Amino acid sequence: MKLLYFNDFRLGILKGESVVDVTSVVQNIPHTGPGNMINGLIARFAEFRGPLERAANAGKGLPVSQVKIRPPLPKPVNVDCMAVNYMEDGTRKAPAPINAFHKSPGCIVGHGETMVLPDIAATIFEGEAELALVIGKPASNVPAAKAMEYIFGYVNFIDGSARGVLPPGNTFYQMKSRATFAPMGPYLVTADEIPNPHKLQVRLWVNGVLKQNYSTDDMAHKIPRCIEWITSIHDLEPGDILATGTNHRGLSAFQDGDTVDLEVEGMGKLTVKVKDEFRRTWSRETRLDREHKGLEGTTPQLSGKYAQA
Q: Is residue 135 part of a domain?
């Protein structure tokens, strides 16, 4: 099942190229807004799945191209992101030590919305194409052997990053938790539709040019281990998001006016715009392009505010 919010946060089920409004089925779930509505539905999905399927089959759909798509998970309690969690096409000799960071749920934007680059002296702004999983039930100290039972579904996720912010060191918070730095969507896919999340192709385009193109089979710490580790640190709740990391080799600068498309196999295509009022520019080369040239680090800023003389 593919669940999405649309227009004024009506709940819909995607059927082909149409979305069927099923809001009436879930309106009695206690909620104060669309965030805890979907979280409540996820927690009670076994109870509501049948009624939702019947409503979707009986209802008349609207063309999805004619509605405004909203973030499918507008207010999770936790957004956790795995760090350095890919083998980078075998170029890493061993997995990096397992690590993650907490990204503010306030960063979330949806399909068709805009990632805004802030007025800070970052060396570069990037967006990491990622498969994210969604937790389906309360999770605490979950053993890896049972971890997949806790997954409700999956969603496209872009982990926005402002690299090189000062002071140097552990800067994950100010690098990752900027407003609009967590685009996701366009919809939430239930886990039964994704038989093997460790064998999905992930593709990201910038202005139609393919930049990232990798498989989740390159993941260093697999999903069960990630869930086990995260839930040994803090509990997860229904509707929480765990982004599984990225292959960094195709990363490139996000810049004013860009159109970014992300498609994880089976998740649909998420499209967002990029806005930078200072119109800063960088070369369009990827990290892999620089590696092939024998260059280290990210491509330097070429023009605009904070560019080095």
A: yes
Which residues does 169 contact at the CB level (< 8 Å), separation at least 6? Answer: none
Residue 40 one-letter amino acid: G
Digit-coded pLDDT (tens) for 156-188: 999 999 999 988 776 788 999 999 999 999 999
123, 164 in Cβ contact below 8 A? yes
How far is the C-alpha of 80 from the C-alpha of 83, rounded, in Å? 10
DSSP E strand boundaries for 66-198: 69-70, 79-82, 100-102, 108-109, 114-116, 124-135, 151-163, 182-190
Domain that holds residue 8: 2-70
Same domain (yes/no): 136, 240: yes
Computed on alpha carbons and rounded to an integer, the radius of gyration of the chain in Å comes to 19
pLDDT in tens, 263-298: 999 999 999 999 999 999 999 999 999 999 999 989
Q: Is the pTM of this model over 0.85?
A: yes
